[in-house]
Amino acid sequence: MKRVYIYALPVLFFFGSCSQYDKIEKSNDNIKKLQYANSLYDKKKFAQANALYEELIKVYQGTKYSQDLLYRYAYSFYYEGDFTSAAFYFKNFEDNYPNDPRSTDADYMKAKSFYEMSPRPELDQSNTNKALDAMQEFINEHPNSSRLKDANTIIDDCHRKLEEKLFLSAQLYYNLEYYNAASIYFHGLLQQYPDSKKGDLYKFMVIKSDYQYAYNSIITKQVERYSTVVTQYLDFVDRFPNSKYLKGAEKYFKQSQSFIKTINNEQIKTRASK
């Protein structure tokens, strides 16, 4: 009997909690309902707190309770993983209560909510861009915030994802044999991320793409396009003299020079025979 009693305790507690929640939810005593919602929030029962806050936020709009209620409401969405709603309500708090000491935190959490929705690099990066813009705005407006280090870490990670996304697009064009488009994308990577640790790889892929583009071109375009490979190689050597891709780039450089010489000689012979 004692064992049955002990096992029954959690069940009784659960139903007791549910009964209390249902009773409070149906109550017309909004003060008691708000106090209970706050107690649930403090116990990290965010889903239940959120459901009560949703009802109370309209009741207490414009009152002395509204600021704290809205702040907790936004956080309850965040802790439940509803980052879209969290971003919306953190912005709502920031816009409506700019002088509240928690406004700075709400501004940061709005940006972080967008960051939480940022997907893997191969997917659409709209939320990454939103997070980047919002977090940069946060830094500009709150340069002395204690959150500055975390904000910069998030910005760096957003840039990493966007760079990786662009690289994957460039590589896809190369794999599909759209060599001119690949060259443009790899060149774009160099321009957008001039200090990237992968800068020499991007430049090497520009050379490689330009070479393939020239090789697959009609004969009348090849000299001009092989000359682009030569120019890109000379720039590569100047910018990345110690790159591990140097030998590979040199191969395309020498082959391009050889093709240019061969084509020019053939054209000279053709003109001479006429």
Short description:
With 274 residues, the protein is mostly helical.
Q: What is the CA-atom radius of gyration, in angstroms?
A: 31 Å
- Please identify the oligomeric state: single chain
Helix count equals: 12
Q: Helices and strands, in N-to-C order? A: HHHHHHHHHHHH
Question: At the fourth CATH level, what is the homologous superfamily of the largest domain?
Answer: Tetratricopeptide repeat domain
Please state the overall shape, judged from the principal axes of the Cα atoms: rod-shaped
User: Could you give the count of β-strands?
Assistant: 0
| Sheet/helix structural class | mainly alpha
The unreliable regions are: 1-16
Q: How far from one another are the termini?
A: 114 Å
| Total number of distinct structural domains | 3
- Report the β-strand fraction as a percent range: under 5%
By CATH reckoning, the class of the largest domain would read Mainly Alpha
| Mean pLDDT across residues | 91
Sheet of most strands: none
Helix content: over 70%
CATH architecture of the largest domain: Alpha Horseshoe
Q: Assign the CATH topology of the largest domain.
A: Serine Threonine Protein Phosphatase 5, Tetratricopeptide repeat
